[in-house]
Amino acid sequence: MDVLLDNLDLYGPGFLNTVELFLISAVGSLVLGTILAMLRVAPVPVMRAIGTTYVTLIRNTPLTLVFFFFALAFPLLEIVNADTFGGSAASYYFSAALMALILYTAAFVCEVVRSGINTVPVGQAEASRALGLTFGQMLGSVVLPQATRAVVPPMMSTMIALLKNTTIAAGFSVFQAGSISLNLSERGENQLIGLLWVAAFFIVLVIPMTLLQRSLEKRWSIAR
Amino acid sequence: MRVRTLAVALLAGGLALTACGKEGGPGDTGTAPPQQVATDVKVDGSPTFDKMKNRGRVVIGVKEDQPGLGYKDPTSGKFNGFDIEIAKLVAAKLGFADDKIDYKAIPSAGREQALINGDVDYYVGTYTINDKRKQQVAFAGPYFTAGQDLLVKKDDNEITGPETLKGKKVCSVTGSTPIQKVKSEGLTEPENIVELQTYSLCVEQLEQGAVDAVTTDDAILKGYASQSPTTLKVIGKPFSNEPYGIGLPKDDKALRDKVNDILDAAISGGDWQKAYDATLGKSGSTAQKPVLERY
């Protein structure tokens, strides 16, 4: 308990930053991932190719490598300069972490959404097209709502993985939960106990997500 | 025989290619002459020493990415540096020759746990002695005194010391003591602090101009400065006191006293100076002999 109370100045801001990183990148990756999934089922071959290439490329790259690219290599390309992200080093590295997390997780979200789309019978799509809906209307009002129902459990797993992935940012100048143990060791605290507290907080963060999953499943369940 | 010739030729070629053989280069920090290995060493009442004896080998925790101190040569896979020389010296006086030593590279954040778990018998790697750490581990020494300093680009005339860091981007390892000091003393604005995984990454960022200064102990920085003497320089105004000690399991007073005796003899007998001259001393800087703090 002492390890926690003596170092509240680490745990408090650390987990706040983790939650902030998680929330922004969760929204970002859900949006981007859904767009990608739409691309992958689009009737235009070029769009399908773009979606497939993205998923193949990003899903097969280790996240640390994606972080390395955005935090350290990206500035060298001189597409952006330090001022693009608010000028300071802290805001640059935070944006870099967000980009890495969003782009990486979007590939997984895309595949989850696509698997959901596949659970909707083809007849639904055919019927809506026969009624005169456009491709976008068909996806948005008929297929995706039904697909969403099927993807709640795997989507939640992807989001929980994202939450834990945020700790990688510790090595790339973003202070969050992953940096706590590194700071503790320099303060001469017992790291094992410190890490147990970090683990405990992660459980606390994951429990509401599990509850949300359960309630969504219940609310959206239908008799087939 | 031919295989060996080939191996040596390849090694020499590799050294030439990586320019590690150049005078004062970090890859070739040199080694002090081997120590006389003591025989019939007895350390009564030391569980750690008994463990080493039974194993017949000694496991020493070291750093692997700090040129001049604890550095693993990527071509030969051998460790070299001042910390390594001290580690070897202690091992020899405990009765273990060079070929009976197993080095284990352990980063800063894992040091206490490695000693507590008994993964290593003792740790020699820029380990600053402080009271907080003494609650978990024991220290022999200090065997060296370093101080926090700044590494900047050679043509940088704006940064002349810690008080000129305002508005500059400063890099160090995530959560390390030097960066915590920069934070707590407000040497630069919080949004200008960059924390990366290793010092080498920070130095890379400095050379690319992404950060303005790298801060940590001067001994470590000097190693990097001698790696790229044309582009980097150390400011040379240390603003902290970092006594390096040998980390030992906490309750092993017998071994701690023994290691202190060994260090005492080495410092007064000249072995310490030889170890320094063969490694850190090559950068041209001199060091004061440390004064042991027994407890």
TrEMBL record, chain A:
Subcellular location: Cell membrane
Family listed: Belongs to the binding-protein-dependent transport system permease family. HisMQ subfamily.
Organism: Saccharothrix carnea
Lipid bilayer topology: Multi-pass membrane protein
Stretches that traverse the bilayer: 20-42, 63-80, 92-113, 162-180, 192-212
Keywords: Amino-acid transport, Cell membrane, Membrane, Transmembrane, Transmembrane helix, Transport
Name assigned to this protein: Amino acid ABC transporter membrane protein 1 (PAAT family)
GO cellular component: ATP-binding cassette (ABC) transporter complex
InterPro entries per record: AA_ABC_transptr_permease_3TM, ArtM/GltK/GlnP/TcyL/YhdX-like, MetI-like, MetI-like_sf
Organism lineage string: Bacteria, Bacillati, Actinomycetota, Actinomycetes, Pseudonocardiales
A single GO molecular function term of this UniProt record: transmembrane transporter activity
Segments forming a coiled coil: none
ABC transmembrane type-1 domain boundaries: 15-213
GO biological process: amino acid transport
PROSITE patterns reported in the protein's UniProt record: ABC_TM1 (PS50928)
Entries under Pfam families matching the protein: BPD_transp_1 (PF00528)
From TrEMBL, chain B:
Solute-binding protein family 3/N-terminal domain segment(s): 57-283
Keywords assigned by UniProt, alphabetized: Signal, Transport
Matching Gene3D superfamilies: Periplasmic binding protein-like II
UniProt record, GO biological process: amino acid transport
Recorded superkingdom: Bacteria
Keyword Transport part of the UniProt annotation: yes
InterPro entries, sorted: Bact_solute-bind_prot3 (IPR051455), SBP_3_CS (IPR018313), Solute-binding_3/MltF_N (IPR001638)
GO cellular component: extracellular region; outer membrane-bounded periplasmic space
Signal peptide from the UniProt entry: 1-21
SUPFAM superfamilies: Periplasmic binding protein-like II (SSF53850)
Key word Transport present: yes
Transmembrane segments: none
Sequence similarity: Belongs to the bacterial solute-binding protein 3 family.
PANTHER family reported for this sequence: ABC TRANSPORTER GLUTAMINE-BINDING PROTEIN GLNH, AMINO ACID ABC TRANSPORTER PERMEASE
Protein's recorded name: Amino acid ABC transporter substrate-binding protein (PAAT family)
Species of origin: Saccharothrix carnea
